[in-house]
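EI: anyone free to look at a 185-residue chain?
SC: sure, send it
EI:
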Amino acid sequence: MVTAILTLTGLVLVIGIVLLWLGRRFTPDEDSLVERINEVLPQTQCAQCGYPGCRPYAQAIADGEADINQCPPGGEEGVRMLAQLLDVEPRPLDQTRGEHKPPMVAVIDEDRCIGCTLCIQACPVDAILGAQKQMHTIIAAECTGCELCIEPCPVDCIDMAGRKSAWRWPRPQPIPIRLRERAHG
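SC: here you go
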């Protein structure tokens, strides 16, 4: 019995050390070129650029595999910002990938929704709430306006509405000093 406990304890310790090492080894470098490019991109995860999301597109730009003008949601301003970051000449937005539109948010007509869940499966940021054969709704604060939920909807109950400002990933807020002191003392 003691041997089994010691063996399991040793195994857990070894796994913990390996996980700690892997966590430090594969932590993204926040100052890397890929992360700076990704910061400029609009984070809609719409795949209009030809990549499954903004981070893979940023990696492709950094690797020289993609051009800076492939992001319709970023528009001409996004192209200019990427050109400035990379110290290259700006190019016109590639119109074959789509057109630049104002910030949008998806809206479900709940009277027409049949609860098929196809929109939930298509949403790259989990901004749709609902269940099989139940009405669905959009969590507007989470919706990036990518429009990927529209095409799979069999009853055409999803529309796009204007949004006041472009969607951005929420930034973690630092814990106020007073709260940190209470938590640790």
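EI: Residues 22 and 62 are 24 Å apart (CA to CA).
SC: 👍
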